[in-house]
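[step 3/7] fold_predict: job queued, chain A
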Amino acid sequence: MPDREEALGMAPRRNFPVEWDALASDDSSEQGGSSGDESRDDAQRREPRRTRRPRNEAEAAAMAQKEQAHQHRVALNTATIEHRLEMINHRRQNDLPLPLNDPWLDEHWDVLLLEFCPNGDLHHLIYRLYVMGDTIPNRVLWAFWLCMVRACIAMAYPPRKFHPRRREPPRYDDNNNAVTSNNLDGKVVGSDLFEEIPGQRRRHAWKNQVHFDIDPRNILVGDLDLYAVDNEHKIVPRLKLADFGLAEEMKEGKRNQYYTKMRTMGKYGYLSPEQFGEEWDHIQTDDPDPRYPNMYRSNGPEICEEKVAGNYGAHTNVWQIAIVAWQLMTKLKAPVPPPPQQRREGLPDNYCAEILTKPEYECFDRDFRLMIAQCMAHAPDQRPNLRTLLQQAKSGVKKVFANESDAYVREWVQLYIYDPTTWEDLPDEV
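[step 4/7] structure written:
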């Protein structure tokens, strides 16, 4: 019979001597010693363990002094902030400029730098399409979808933590244009790391971050990658996901109130089945509240084991980007409440209305519409995972569609995204 190491395909270990320390007399694992059945009076007592540091007779007074100093700092900082707010409000009310040589700013850099996206958001794009009576090309639709999928991947696998080339310095040419590098180790454009699914060995460290507020107003339109070698954004601009004010990194095994408080996070029309599903009304509990026998306790453990109710995760982000894609095709507001759809073509129970049944939406790629219907499934485990969505999106952007040449897509992007026409020139929203 082979050795255990050989059976496992491992190199056999060398024999080496080990000197074990003698077991203590009160160790219950020692043969012939204490049996563990003796009473406390018969067992040998251990010496009292010393504390981590010697006790200080003046410790109480020192702690009180430390607390007093902390409260003084808090009061001083509060007074400083209130004074500065009064000064800022006074200058704004009197149209006075803020001081540029303020010494307070030398020590307090409370500044948040955000990328400027001059091309608006998807809400304005959808409105313009609605007013003009036009539709979005399939090539633009697939390109936008790839960006939204990458945004979901970024929340699960942040590139600054998972991208294999995250430690490389950014690359620019002599004209300060971002250099694109796309190989098996990941795509990089200047200092931007493109989102990818990491290798299997690193997926265990993923972050279960949920945005909770993905809608067309929070998806901004960026610029083109004119020097990209893979043409991913050479014609269609990038999208940027914004407004992470409601984002949460979800934890497992929490009390019921942890999941209940997130039921209303987000905008109506974009809430997921994990928030509005009828499963919330049928949560079984073994320890109901005597005052409300049909309700679960707020500090109970039931919701963390549910398959739908409170099961927030990456699939929740997928649900919301699917609604945005649905709006790009239909140019309609997100329905409240979402209408359940009958099962068709092997699809699970979903809320994807109209785009599979009405003839006016047959101009869109059927594979895309079926994928959106899957992403709007009621059960989270029946929605495609991020790996599948990324593969489908990368294949979709390579498709060729009739009457959608490069020139046509460039003209469409120029008209609906880059055209300088102001929104005041358009009719009022219906």
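[step 5/7] annotate
Confidence is low (pLDDT under 50) at residues 4-8, 16-20, 23-45, 423-430.
DSSP finds eleven helices and seven strands in the chain.
exit 0
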